[in-house]
Amino acid sequence: MDFQNANGGLVGSVRRLTDSTIALLKNRAELAILELQEEKARLISASLWGGLFIFSSLMAVMAMTCTLIFLFWDQKLNVAIALLVLYLIGIVAAFFLLKRRLKTPAPFAETVAQLKKDRAWLQN
């Protein structure tokens, strides 16, 4: 039996197995890196839009509050209480909407799925 033959035999089989394993690991690493870059871009975008939303909302709320209190100066306490209740309702609604928006697939879901497939294939 010729163990030195690179095209067949034990050495050739080990070499092909090693090459296949390295290619598989390289492929999975590239997928993980791609998903990490996508997750980073999504997080940066969400942070920027969230910051703009918070700033704009606060400015609008302050302007509306001042305007309504000046318009109804005789009833300023009642107006302030009504606005407080309105703002609290808005806070609760925004919390639940944000919570629903952040429910996205887990990061690296595709990488984990591929690794599970690889593991199942190797076990069979």
Overall description:
- It contains three helices and no strands.
- It is mainly α and 124 residues long.
- The radius of gyration is 30 Å and the shape is rod-shaped.
- The model has no long low-confidence stretch (mean pLDDT 86).
Summarize the structure.
By secondary structure, the protein is an all-alpha fold. The chain has helices spanning 9-71, 76-101, 109-123.
Structurally, the number of domains stands at: 1
The helix/strand class is: mainly alpha
* Amount of helix: over 70%
Total beta-strand segments: 0
N-to-C CA distance: 28 Å
Low-confidence runs: none
Largest sheet: none
Count of DSSP H/I helices: 3
What spatial form do the alpha-carbon principal axes imply?
rod-shaped
The helix/strand order is: HHH
- The overall average pLDDT, rounded, is 86
Q: What fraction strand?
A: under 5%
Q: Nearest-angstrom radius of gyration?
A: 30 Å
Q: Which keywords apply here?
A:
mainly alpha; single chain; 124 residues
List the helices and strands and how they pair.
Layout lengths: L8 H63 L4 H26 L7 H15 L1
